[in-house]
Structure formats: C-alpha cells, structure tokens
Design brief:
By secondary structure, the chain is α+β, with helices and mostly antiparallel strands. Helices cover about 40% and strands about 20% of the residues. It has an 8-stranded mixed sheet. Strands 13-12-14-15-16 form a 5-stranded mixed sheet, with helices on both faces. It has a 3-stranded antiparallel sheet with strand order 2-4-3. The structure holds histidyl-adenosine monophosphate. Histidyl-adenosine monophosphate binds near residues 119, 129, 278, 279 and 307.
Length: about 425
C-alpha cells in the first residue's frame, strides 16, 4: 500500500461537509464586505517567495517545498498566499480598475514543518487582502471582518492581539536597540535565536524556548520607538476598534514570521488549542507590492487556518447538527421497473432534488436499508404490478407512512412538498 504524506491529511467524505459549511459562511461574509475571489496557481517561481516573505524567515529558510521543473526552473509550492496575490495584482494591473482592491483566496498552502497537532505540511487558508489604502480605517475594517467571520462560525473565547511594528522610518532604530540588548544576553538564547540575532533578530521575541522568552520579556519595546505617523496610525486603529467594541490586547512581542509587515500586525488566538493556537494572523504590508515590481501600494490582510477553526469548534464541542433527511430514493421491486426508476431519478435531479436509485442489484429490503443509511427523506417504490396500473408507492422515511399515488404525479408531488421536508 502506498500511503499519503505525513502532515498532509486526506479530508474524507464524512468530514468534507464541515469544510464546505465553513467555506460557504466565509464566502457569504466576504461578499458582504465587498471582497472578490481570486484563484492563483499552487506554485510560483521560488524567487517570488524569497523576495516577498524574506530570506531570513523560517518559511524561506526551512519550510518551502522547492523543486526544479523539467525546464530547470526553480519553482515552489506556495507556503502562503499574500505574495502570490500581490504578484497577480501587479501582473494584471488590478489597481488600475479600483483604488481599493479587495481580494480573497481559499486554498491549500504547503510548508515543510514538523507535523504536530494543529500544524500540517499541507493546510488550508482563507486569505484576505485589501490593497490600495494606507489609512487606519482599512485596518479597522479588516480586523472587524475577521472578528465577524470568527463569530459567524460560532467560535468562542478567541483573543485578539494587536501590535504596531513600525515602518522603515522607525523600525531600524528599534532593531538596533533590540540587537544590542539581545547580544548582551547571547548565552541565554537558543541556537536558533543565535542565527536569528544576525538574520532576523526581532523573531527572537516570539521564540517559544523558555530562556529566550525570559530575554524577550525584558527587551526594549517597540512602542517607545514608533515614529509619530506610526503612533498616530496605531492609535486611530485602536480607537476605531474600541468604537466597534472589538476587544483587543496590545502585544508588543507580536512581530510575525514574515518580513513584509509594516505597522499594524494582529493575531487571533484560541488558548484552548495548545501550542499551535493562532487561528488567524495578518497585518499591514505597505512595501510588498513595490518590492515585487509594482507601484508603491499600501495593503493589509490576514489569513485564517481552516484546520484550526475546525479544531476550535471541535474543542468547544459545538453540538453536531442533528442529521437531516433530504431528497428521494427511488426503489425498484423487479428489474422491469429499472428504466422507469432511472428516468424518474434523472428528472427529480433536474428539478433540483437530491435523488438516488440502486445501481448494484440490491433486493428491495436492501434498497430501503440503503435509503435509510443515506438519510433520504422519502422513497418512491416502483413494482412491476404497480407500474402496470400506472401507480407508485410514496413512503415517508421518517414516519414510515406510505400511500399509493399515480406515477404521472410523482414528480409534481415531490417537488411541491414543503421545502423543510425536501431540503
Ligand atoms: P501566517 O501567520 O503564516 O500568515 O498564517 C496564517 C494562519 O495560517 C495561521 O494563523 C494558522 O492558523 C495557519 N497556519 C499557518 N501555518 C500552518 C500549518 N503549518 N498548519 C496549519 N495551519 C497553519 C500568513 O500566511 C500571511 N500570508 C497572512 C497575511 C495575509 N498577512 C497579510 N495578508
């Protein structure tokens, strides 16, 4: 037997309904906020992610699925969607059509991480990006949208952490102060953080190793270094969130693992999930579009981890919806009835009903058992004697009640039944 890849689980038929439900709610809410779907390929030129996400980041250094294609070109399975979306934004001049472009993408992402609970090598994101406006109002609306989505999914006990990591005008001074502080405590840092110290020092702030966390706890904080425009921007975002009654905690250690961020960064955390507790994260990235060869274009966005949303719903034990019985099962007693049944099922499907018949030669008893197992609301039984009389039997699978109706009226009858019973 050839097995699937560790960290890249199959989503089996009994689970796919939950995913569909999650994505239907996402699409509905995103539509209400004016977002349009974009679908970009699952792979891109490696250079896009190296430039976009940044060379010193864990993603680019350790986690990308990179391969050479048959033409000798280096390609990478997307580890996230923002760089891909901004590549498409620039390539198709999407900014020419509208000053604020709102995009979303739902799909799989790929990172070669150590698989553990809540962390996969192929996982799924709902990625949302608002491109074109520098103002704090967009930050507030984007965070409010994410908050709305989590609420619409029924998530409880989620905390919003917010930070500003400054911009190219003020962050260098903070970085310098931080490096000086961390250098003096080098011996307390883990081997990974030794490397971070030179490549991406601010990432030390969210290292999980206890001795590094101790160093981080005493480190200089970014708020003292923010320039006035960054400070004002952050204050405006916070006050708009307060106005919307969206509770948030300022977490000055929230630097995020991708290099493109400027100013606002945020994460929604579910402490019930254990160590992989970020259900969504994002921030502003005012320099990325330009970095990718486009015009200077401010932007902000976030991505939600779908696996972590489903795990959160499971952890809070949202009662599973009671099974619904829908549609019609057409059962046959005797092979002569099969062509009529096949025709009837196709007609019912065209009329919008879920419908099925037996394709495997089961007995009538076996067919009724199957209809129950597959949760059909009604069954229509076609026997050769009945057919000869132009009759069929309609059975209510919940009450067990059954009655004869003229075959010619079956379709009209079933499509007229109250939607609650059919749906
Ligand atoms: P990220 O924080 O790397 O941000 O990922 C966003 C979310 O994806 C995480 O909060 C988590 O829920 C989920 N996630 C990430 N890695 C894994 C994994 N290995 N297994 C399961 N779930 C995972 C980004 O990807 C940015 N592109 C977000 C963004 C959009 N920033 C601006 N726009």
């Amino acid at each position: 037997m050839i097995k699937g890849i560790r960290g890249a689980p199959d989503i089996l038929p009994e689970e796919s309904g939950k995913w569909q439900a999650l994505e239907i709610v996402a699409r509905d809410v995103l539509d209400r906020y004016g977002y349009s779907e974009i679908r970009t390929p699952a792979f891109e030129r490696t250079e896009l992610f190296v430039r976009g996400i940044g060379e010193g980041t864990d993603i680019v250094e350790k986690e990308m699925y990179t391969f050479e294609d048959r033409g000798g070109e280096s390609l990478t399975l997307r580890p996230e969607a923002t760089a891909s979306l901004m590549r498409a934004y620039v390539e198709h001049s999407l900014g020419a059509k509208s000053s604020l472009v709102k995009l979303y993408l739902i799909g799989p992402m790929f990172r070669h991480e150590r698989p553990q609970s809540g962390r996969f090598r192929q996982f799924h994101q709902v990625d949302v990006e608002a491109v074109g406006s520098p103002g704090p109002a967009v930050d507030a609306e984007v965070v409010a949208l994410l908050h709305h989505l989590l609420e619409a999914w029924g998530l409880r006990g989620i905390q919003l952490h917010l930070n500003s990591i400054g911009d190219p005008a003020c962050r260098p001074a903070y970085r310098q102060a931080f490096v000086a502080y961390a250098e003096a405590r080098r011996s307390a840092l883990c081997p990974d953080c030794h490397v971070r110290l030179t490549k991406n020092p601010l990432r030390i702030l969210d290292c999980k190793v206890p001795s590094c966390q101790q160093v981080a706890a005493g480190a200089p904080t970014i708020s003292a270094y923010l320039c006035e425009p960054c400070r004002d921007h952050f204050a405006a975002v916070r006050s708009m969130l307060d106005g919307l009654k969206i509770e948030h905690a300022v977490n000055e250690r929230l630097v995020r693992g991708l290099d493109y961020y400027t100013r606002t960064t945020f994460e929604f955390l579910n402490t019930a999930l254990g160590s992989q507790n970020a259900v969504a994260g994002g921030g502003r990235y005012d320099g990325l579009v330009e970095e990718l060869g486009g015009p200077p274009t401010p932007a902000i966005g976030f991505a939600i981890g779908e696996e972590r949303i489903l795990a959160s719903l499971e952890a809070q034990q949202t009662p599973p919806e009671s099974p619904t019985y829908t549609g019609v099962y057409v059962a046959t007693a005797g092979a002569e009835a099969f062509p009529t049944a096949l025709d009837l099922v196709q007609t019912l499907r065209r009329r919008g009903l879920r419908a099925a018949l037996d394709l495997e030669g089961r007995s009538l008893k076996g067919q009724m058992r199957q209809a129950n197992k597959d949760r059909y609301r009604y069954s229509v039984i076609l026997g050769s004697d009945e057919l000869a009389r132009g009759q069929a039997t309609l059975k209510d699978m919940l009450s067990g009640e059954q009655r004869a109706i003229p075959l010619s009226e079956v379709v009209e009858h079933l499509t007229r039944l109250p939607e609650r019973e059919q749906a």
